[in-house]
Amino acid sequence: MCLMLGARPDLAYTVGFISRSLENPSSEDVANVKRAFRYIAGTTTLGIVYAPGLKIGILKCYCDADYGAWA
Questions:
Q1: Which residue has the higher pLDDT, 49 or 36?
Q2: 24 is in which domain, residue-wise?
Q3: Tens digits of per-residue pLDDT, 17-28?
């Protein structure tokens, strides 16, 4: 949970979903945890990149969420 909140918000749903069955995990739950670990291992090199040649003080961001549709 600490990793999810502090450094990897993309894991929020996954960690919350997996945490629901901590007392009595099934083989499907174990497979989900392994899948999450493979995702983490495959995305360790991804992050925010500050490239040369960009305008100073401008941060270009992209998001696939559409929170305005719920208003």
A1: 36
A2: 2-70
A3: 888 888 999 999
